[in-house]
Design brief:
180 residues, 70% helix, mainly alpha
Length: 180
């Protein structure tokens, strides 16, 4: 066998090794991307659960319930602080979700579900006024624009968060199953 044949065989083996290595790197990159997406969604859900747990504190729940029950509640400074931090907690988590969706780290379907939360926290007139006066300064301009778009649609259920959900108020296919 001559040196040219050995060199050609070496080049073919080398090229095959490069192709195999690239295939492995592509596989690893996909696995890493999938893991990052899962981690982002889990962290968001965990953060939202922590905010919900804070609502189980009777004092916090009482303060926040006041703004949902009355358009002009009589709030103490302590209650206002609780409410502001509650809103801020939601806004920072939701802003991160907004950024993660735009970076491809979360599916857009998850973001659509988060929009429901935004609509819910901005039902009370008090929260809308807080947003205009204070809240918008806590978030980035792109997220401000998104919140402003949500608020331009008016509050869900004409501002009555406590409006009972009935079978007639749920869109078919959303949360109900036809048993007939």
């Amino acid at each position: 066998m001559n040196w040219e044949a050995i060199g050609a065989i070496g080049e073919v083996v080398g090229a095959a090794a490069v192709v195999v290595t690239l295939g492995f790197l592509i596989f690893q990159l996909r696995q890493s991307t999938f893991a990052l997406r899962q981690q982002s969604a889990r962290e968001s859900t965990s953060s939202l659960q922590q905010i919900s747990l804070a609502m189980m504190n009777p004092s916090t729940a009482g303060s926040i319930s006041k703004i949902y029950a009355s358009p002009d509640p009589d709030l103490t400074p302590t209650e206002m602080a609780q409410i502001e931090h509650w809103f801020l907690s939601y806004l920072l988590v939701l802003q991160q979700d907004f950024l993660d969706v735009h970076r491809g780290l979360q599916p857009s379907a998850l973001w659509e579900a988060r929009l429901v939360i935004i609509n819910a926290i901005f039902i009370p007139q008090w929260s809308r006024a807080w947003w205009q006066r204070i809240g918008r300064s806590y978030v980035i301009p792109d997220f401000q624009t998104l919140i402003d778009q949500v608020l331009s649609q008016g509050p869900r259920d004409d501002g009555d968060y406590w409006k009972p959900v009935t079978a007639n108020s749920v869109t078919p296919g959303e949360g109900t199953e036809d048993t007939a």
